[in-house]
């Protein structure tokens, strides 16, 4: 008999433990996204080939989506233009320097 691997605490499964100490200690002032430039500076080394291809793929995938002219996305001028979110999604910096989720 196959078992479902999609169990959650909400389902009442006692084997699922939610670490409340991590949630309480999370600093909400931490940025939710970093530019590729900031990541490279903080690691003080290059990203590996697999990571680079993942960023390229996500950027190309998002740029294929048609956008209205008022979307406000500026051209990619370098690593500071590409934003990496905590959840793994990629976005582009907007013209007005606000961060805009662009479904990349």
Automatic annotation (TrEMBL):
GO aspect biological process, one term: actin filament polymerization
One Pfam family in the UniProt entry: KIND
Alphabetical UniProt keywords: Actin-binding, Cell membrane, Cytoplasm, Cytoplasmic vesicle, Cytoskeleton, Membrane, Protein transport, Repeat, Transport
Stretches for region Disordered: 1-21
Location relative to the cell: Cell membrane; Cytoplasm, Cytoskeleton; Cytoplasmic vesicle membrane
Domain of life: Eukaryota
GO cellular component, one term: cytoplasmic vesicle membrane
Membrane-protein topology: Peripheral membrane protein
Domain KIND: 34-104
Single GO molecular function: microtubule binding
Family designation: Belongs to the spire family.
PANTHER family attached to this UniProt entry: PROTEIN SPIRE HOMOLOG 2, SPIRE
Protein name: Protein spire-like protein 2
Organism the protein comes from: Takifugu flavidus (sansaifugu)
């Amino acid at each position: 008999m196959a078992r479902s691997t999609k169990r959650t605490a909400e389902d009442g499964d006692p084997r699922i433990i939610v670490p409340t100490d991590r949630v309480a200690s999370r600093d909400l002032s931490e940025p939710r996204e970093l530019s590729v430039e900031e990541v490279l500076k903080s690691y003080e080394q290059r990203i590996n080939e697999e990571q680079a291809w993942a960023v390229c793929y996500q950027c190309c995938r998002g740029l294929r989506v048609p956008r209205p002219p008022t979307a406000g996305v500026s051209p990619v001028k370098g690593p500071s233009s590409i934003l990496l979110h905590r959840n793994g999604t990629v976005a582009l910096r907007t013209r007005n320097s606000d961060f805009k989720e662009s479904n990349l």
